[in-house]
Design brief:
The protein is 41% helix and 15% strand. It is of the alpha+beta class and 228 residues long. Strand 5 (180-186) and strand 6 form a beta hairpin. Helix 2 packs across helix 3 and helix 4 (64-86) packs across helix 5 (95-102). It starts with a helix and ends with a helix. The model is unreliable at 219-228 (pLDDT under 50).
């Protein structure tokens, strides 16, 4: 049985490798908020257990065993977030700290029951993919809203950032997942994006648009229908 500390290290490693193949002990210590010596000692222990490839002065890498174990922690976390939103009525901005605690419960049956009650979702309330029982992630084509050209209709399907403040900002803009939007214009100077959706005309700064992950609908509607 892995301890919460081990699971947190593996999950942090998995998150870091999404952005860089060259993860260092400094990166890991910063991600977890621990000292470099503390991180170094834990990495050596994880290496001895066959969970991380570790060589001095070389980037860290998860082994296949470590990657799968990390993905299953992520699975428990994201299933929990979905359950809290769908079955218990929590807001999507409330669920992360609760799921951080529940993800360390060592009871496969508990999470399988949760998965069954949710009808085996592929994505959590923030649009992040939920790994399957083998630790594999579903794949879905998506792009950043900041990269979409004007005149295109898109659907909001995920977020690249999910702090409580950011989620409350999206609530204020009436932008839940599944929102169909028309990109009306992209400012040539500051790259802000003007959108129309649900009868609203909203301009988002590039810093926000770059955190919104979108996909083209199967049948792209006209500008008029995208605003309804």
């Amino acid at each position: 049985m892995a301890t919460p500390t081990v699971e947190n290290y593996l999950k942090a490693m998995l998150a870091l490798t999404k952005h860089s193949a060259a993860v260092t002990i400094s990166d890991l210590s910063a991600e977890l908020g621990v000292s470099k010596p503390t991180a170094n000692n834990m990495i050596r222990r994880l290496s001895e257990r066959g969970l991380i490839h570790y060589q001095k002065y070389r980037p860290l890498q998860l082994t296949e065993k470590g990657r799968r174990q990390a993905a299953l922690v992520v699975r428990k976390h994201r299933l929990t977030e979905m359950y809290l939103v769908e079955k218990m009525g929590f807001g999507w901005e409330e669920v992360h700290p609760i799921a951080e605690q529940i993800e360390h419960i060592d009871s496969p049956a508990f999470f399988e029951r949760m998965d069954h009650l949710l009808n085996s979702p592929n994505y959590d309330p923030h649009g992040s993919p939920i790994p399957d029982r083998e630790g594999n992630l579903p794949k879905r084509k998506r792009e950043r809203l900041s990269d979409v050209e004007s005149g295109n209709a898109v659907v909001l399907i995920g977020l690249d950032h999910s702090s409580a403040d950011f989620l409350r900002y999206l609530d204020d803009k009436q932008l839940p997942l599944g929102t169909l939007m028309m990109v009306e214009a992209v400012d040539s100077y500051d790259k802000s994006v003007r959108l129309s959706y649900r009868g609203l005309d909203v301009t988002l700064p590039e810093t926000i648009a770059s955190k919104l992950l979108v996909a083209k609908p199967s049948h792209a509607p006209s500008s008029d229908s995208a605003t309804k």
